[in-house]
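Retro notes (design track)

What went well: tokenization of the new backbones is finally stable.
What didn't: we kept losing track of which sequence belonged to which structure.
Fix going forward: every design gets posted as structure first, then sequence, in one message. First example under the new rule, 191 residues:
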């Protein structure tokens, strides 16, 4: 089936979607995939996949002789650890690397348990690789501009504070307060 995905520039994008079973070993993970995850929930996911299989296909796009993962990194990691030979995949026909990156980031951004630091890194990645501004990025992701700017502000906190936020040791509000301190030593002391 095909699904219209909206306007991108002057051209309307149409993505053909097909679900197939792919060899797990043929799927490559891109750099912007999910960096942190709850180990307990991951073990639950593995148990579910081991018992019932993968219920929701991962998203991939063709990449040379293999496949590039767009969404579903936890499901793919679980299959790798369980030594599953194949995984159901929704094949997305996407014309550009930039659109694949944006689609991957949007899917990640819409998760209920998304980590604010991961959002910040994904937003910055899209800004660095494309022709987006924070305003167009907010529109593309369906977010308010202050939300996007708040996430981007997290990139200015110290590495130690970023790690604490990523690891759940501090909350988003705490990290924003830390971002108001200019000196990174002061930021680290405020942890």
């Amino acid at each position: 089936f095909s699904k219209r995905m909206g306007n991108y520039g002057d051209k309307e994008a149409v993505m053909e979607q097909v679900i197939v079973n792919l060899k797990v070993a043929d799927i490559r993970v891109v750099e912007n995939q999910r960096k942190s995850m709850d180990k307990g929930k991951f073990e639950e996911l593995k148990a579910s996949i081991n018992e019932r299989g993968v219920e929701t296909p991962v998203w991939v796009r063709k990449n040379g002789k293999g496949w590039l993962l767009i969404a579903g990194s936890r499901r793919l990691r679980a299959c790798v650890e369980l030594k599953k030979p194949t995984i159901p995949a929704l094949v997305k026909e996407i014309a550009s690397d930039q659109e694949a990156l944006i689609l991957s980031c949007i899917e990640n951004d819409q998760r209920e348990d998304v980590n604010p630091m991961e959002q910040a890194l994904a937003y910055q990645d899209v800004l660095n690789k494309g022709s987006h501004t924070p305003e167009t990025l907010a529109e593309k992701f369906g977010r308010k501009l202050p939300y996007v700017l708040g996430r981007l502000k997290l990139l200015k906190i110290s590495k130690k504070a970023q790690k604490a936020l990523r690891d759940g040791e501090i909350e988003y509000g705490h990290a924003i307060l830390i971002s108001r301190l200019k000196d990174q030593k002061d930021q680290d002391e405020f942890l």
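Added context from the reviewer: The longest strand covers residues 11-23.
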